Structures are given as structure tokens and as C-alpha cells.
Amino acid sequence: MEKLKSLEYDLRYLQAALELIERYLLSDDIFWPLGETPPEGEPDYPQMTLDGVLLARARLSARPKTAVQQDQVGKVTSDLDYQRSRHRVAWERKARECYRVRLRMWGDFLQEYRDNPGDNADRYAYEVRLRVMLNLLKPEIGSQNATEAQLLIGLDKILKGVFVDGGFIWDEGIKAGFPRDEYWYLYGSLPRLAENR
What we know:
The chain is an all-alpha fold. Helices cover 58% and strands 2% of the residues. Helix 4 (88-115) packs parallel to helix 8. The longest helix is centred in the middle third of the chain and has 28 residues, at 88-115. The mean pLDDT is 93.
């Protein structure tokens, strides 16, 4: 199971991202240095991306929170919504760029799995975040490129051909934010051995 980052981890990520978001949105870069220290005992932060921001926000929204935490999450969410509306064109452009990058990365992972299931099946719980990011980016990009939409449908078909249905693979603390009907790929795994289908 992919270890859940703490509420504090995601909150710090979003607070740091908000300080940089305007410059990031107006830049040509997809990945942006964050420069934030994670809570003790947790992994280093990845570089900031728009889809990383959306994923951290989705995890925060899903988690149970104290009243104080609810206020903190509410403030960061409100600030993000403000930046989204203030820089709507740049936000959509960045979302489209991130979508293309994550679609390629997700396709690369699935190909690596098909080429060598034994070495790549265990990576699924981590790599599936790319598929979640694609889902979170879709409403942000305005009209979707038809070729990209068809490519994702094809990748989902490949995944469904080998997918083993099961329980929620991320931490139960965020399960409510990722329902099975929409995020079916978080409810199962990939076999270590390829089957003849």
C-alpha cells in the first residue's frame, strides 16, 4: 500500500506552492522547485506541479480534520481558487501541458509493466498517482484534445485487461475522497506475472 502523506505534509506543500503559484503559472516550466522542508520523518517534497497541487488538495479534502485543520485547509483552498480565477488562461494552459506530460509518463509505466510485469507490478501503487492526476487535470483544461482523450481510453483498456480488482490501495484515511466508480484503478493491483489474454 502506498503510504499516505500526513495532513501537515500536504498542507505545507500547498502553502509553499501558493507563494510561487503566480510565477509558476506564468512560466513555461512544468516542474518548479518548491524549497519547503517536509515534516520530520516524511519524504522530501517533489517539485511543484499543477497536478501535484491538485492531488495534495484532493488528499487534504478527503482527510478527517480537526476544527483548526479545517480552517487551515479552507484558507489554502480558497487562496488556490482565487489564483485559479485570477489566472484562468495561464491555469488552463499549464493544466494542458501537465496533462500531456502525465499522459506520456502513465503510458510509459504501462509499457514498462507489459514488457516486464515481475519488475514493475510493485510500482503500481506509486505510479497510479499519474492516472489520478490525469483525472484531476481533466476538468481544468477546458476542451480536451481528441487524440489525447482516445489515448487515455486506450491506456485504460490496457490496464483493465490485466487489472486485478481488490481493495483500496492507498491509505484508508483518504478513501472517501476517491470513490470506486470514478477512481476504479485505485481499487486493485497488477499481477506480477502476465496472463495470456
